[in-house]
Specification:
Layout: E1 3-5, E2 7-9, E3 12-14, E4 21-24, E5 31-35, H1 42-58, H2 62-78, H3 80-91, H4 95-119, E6 125-132, E7 139-147, E8 152-155, H5 163-175, E9 179-182, H6 188-200, E10 209-211, E11 228-232, H7 235-242, H8 245-250, E12 253-257, E13 262-266, H9 275-289, E14 299-305, H10 309-320, H11 341-355, E15 359-363, E16 383-387, H12 395-398, E17 405-411, H13 414-422, E18 427-433, H14 437-448, E19 451-457, E20 476-477, E21 488-489, E22 499-507, H15 508-515
Parallel strand pairs: 1-5, 8-9, 8-11, 9-10, 11-12, 13-14, 13-18, 14-17, 16-17, 18-19
Antiparallel strand pairs: 2-3, 4-5, 6-7, 7-22, 15-16, 20-21
Bound molecules: NADP nicotinamide-adenine-dinucleotide phosphate.
Residues 155-160, 182, 184-185, 215-216, 232-234, 237, 240-241, 257-260, 296, 400, 402, 428, 484 line the site of NADP nicotinamide-adenine-dinucleotide phosphate.
């Protein structure tokens, strides 16, 4: 039998009572480790984090907690090789794709360590300036942000076992709020190893960072009034979380990052052969294939002027044809596997569902896999679909195929392109490509109301921009509507979720003591 990973809860390592779920290699099918979460006293574990780790973290200043994040960064960096091995085995990712998750997570943690250092020795934050409440200036109102006295429960998706943990844990721990993470079962191993390394290094007070691997049963029942929950995953599970009795009863603060049919928009000035056109092709191909398209931010819909539809289909198809797919251990392979057989089936069915309505422009599944048995490996070649009538095909704006799949669409006017993009009902990110700064700026503002982030690519930032799908800790991550309505990262803004805002109404002489 494979090793069963322990859970860390209540300040101790604990084994789940059942045999557990088996995690496997999506390329070879080999069993790796098991995870189990039944039989533990979850309420006692949550209480320990709340009552023991919470006060210990809050006794420190932001700068002191930032120093702990810096130490955690060093521990994680010293174990990077092990994390890459686990990612290759359990997520089936090539090295560059593992880096997006592993190094992306460590970078986010180190960014928050730097942000925290600048906050210095404060133990709470001021929110805006004091405002006079009456005719006389003596009685005023000052808003403050104080760390919440609860725990932060993270329920994460399978595609980012490292980044998904640290992008949430960094602002929570910096805020002084203990973290309990429940990674998605299929890829829990990497999250487990990282938490284990940090816990074993005794950086944070006991209970500040806990992990429950395996099923989610009972986790939400353990939530109390000052807790927060941050969820990343499907819209169906998100709905269950929002409507869970404990969440409703205790007004538990909820952040949801759900699915999203993100777009790329080529502006009318970007004709084939122009730099902006080439930048769109390069970015769309990268977004389709990076992490086998298993990124919540990946481009799913590509909008180009009708006159450029054929040229874009040809250029994108030619680029995708260069993607070698198969075993990530082979150095010639550029794209590894989907995360498991279930995802393989879901993605295959999703492609078939779209194919019933639109044209297949390129199908990389016809090319043989490298070093991988197609009857075992969960590898899918990139698939580009297309339609010249996106206004009459609703399904392309509704279905998110969570794999190396995107749909090219022709549009008539920029106004109609924007209306089509909005049919995604709220997305995480939209990228816009062109060379006319005035129309690009106008498009960005126009699209902002239905997106958490607008990524504008003009030739001058062609080599500098950070990528459509790369989530940078300095910028907001999250989107309205279908994308879940959540807000994460965005520098200091991320700390607000873990703080309570309160208005202190008092004599200006007392308020001065707060601002001193
Ligand atoms: P999922 O099935 O909803 O699972 C997400 C997490 O929820 C897993 O940890 C899962 O645990 C847990 N879970 C399942 N049922 C639950 C319940 N009843 N109560 C509490 N937790 C429960 O989603 P997924 O298929 O793993 O993730 C893919 C989706 O996530 C895609 O649609 C993608 O767009 C979205 N995503 C969004 C973002 C973003 O930042 N917006 C990032 C990544 C992914 P088990 O694994 O144990 O079932």
């Amino acid at each position: 039998m494979t090793e069963k990973l322990l859970n860390y809860l209540g300040g101790q390592w604990q084994s789940g009572a059942d045999d557990g779920a088996v995690l496997s290699d999506p390329v070879t099918g080999q069993s790796l480790v098991r995870v189990a979460s039944s039989g533990m006293d979850l309420k006692a574990g949550f209480a320990f984090a709340r009552e023991s780790a919470g006060p210990a973290l809050r006794a420190m200043s932001y700068a002191q907690r930032a120093a702990l994040l810096t130490t955690a960064v060093k521990i994680l960096q010293s174990n990077r090789d092990r994390y890459y091995e686990i990612a290759t085995a359990n997520s089936g990712t090539v090295k560059n794709d593992s880096a997006v998750d592993i190094d992306g997570g460590i970078y986010t943690l180190s960014t928050y360590a730097k942000i925290g250092e600048k906050l210095g020795e404060q133990k709470f934050l001021l929110d805006g300036e004091a405002a006079r409440l009456g005719k006389e200036p003596l009685f005023q109102s000052q808003h403050v942000l104080v760390p919440r006295h609860g725990v932060a429960l993270f329920i994460n998706a399978f595609n980012f076992p490292s980044w998904g943990l640290w992008e949430k844990a960094a602002p929570a721990l910096l805020s002084g709020v203990p973290v309990i993470v429940k990674p998605a079962t299929s890829t829990a191993w990497l999250t487990h190893q990282m938490v284990k390394d940090v816990v074993d290094a005794k950086i944070f007070p006991p209970g500040a960072l806990s992990i429950v691997c395996g099923g989610s049963a009972g986790l939400l029942d353990a939530l109390a009034p000052f807790d927060v929950i941050s969820f990343t995953g499907s819209a169906d599970t998100a709905e269950k979380i929002r409507t869970h009795p404990a969440v409703a009863k205790h007004s538990v603060r909820v952040n949801i990052e759900a699915d999203s049919v993100n777009s790329a928009l080529l502006m009318p000035d970007a004709v084939p052969g122009s730099e902006a056109f080439d930048l769109l092709i390069k970015e769309a191909a990268r977004e389709m294939t990076q992490k086998s398209g298993q990124k919540c931010t990946a481009i799913r819909r590509i909008f180009v002027p009708r006159a450029h539809y054929n040229a874009a289909a040809e250029a994108l198809g030619a680029r995708l044809a260069k993607t070698t797919v198969g075993n990530p251990r082979n150095e010639t392979v550029r794209m590894g596997a989907l995360v498991n057989r279930e995802q393989f089936t879901t993605v295959t069915n999703g492609i078939a569902q779209l194919q019933a309505h639109i044209t297949t422009l390129f199908d990389g599944r016809k090319t043989a896999l490298v070093d991988a048995d197609p009857s075992v490996a969960c590898c899918v070649g990139p698939v580009l679909l297309g339609t010249e009538n996106p206004e009459s095909v609703s399904i392309v704006h509704e279905v998110e195929v969570f794999g190396p799949v995107a749909t090219l669409m022709a549009y008539e006017t920029p106004e109609r392109a924007t209306a089509l993009i909005r049919r995604g009902e709220g997305s995480l990110v939209c990228s816009v490509y062109g060379a006319d700064n005035t129309t690009l700026a106008a498009a960005a503002i126009d699209l902002a109301s239905s997106h958490g982030r607008i990524h504008v690519i003009s030739p001058e930032v062609g080599v500098q921009h950070t990528g459509h799908g790369n989530v940078m800790p300095q910028s907001l991550h999250g989107g309205p509507g279908r994308a879940g309505g959540g807000e994460e990262l965005g520098g200091l803004r991320a700390l607000h979720f873990y703080h309570q805002r309160s208005a202190i109404q008092a004599s200006s002489n007392i308020l001065e003591k707060l601002t001193a």
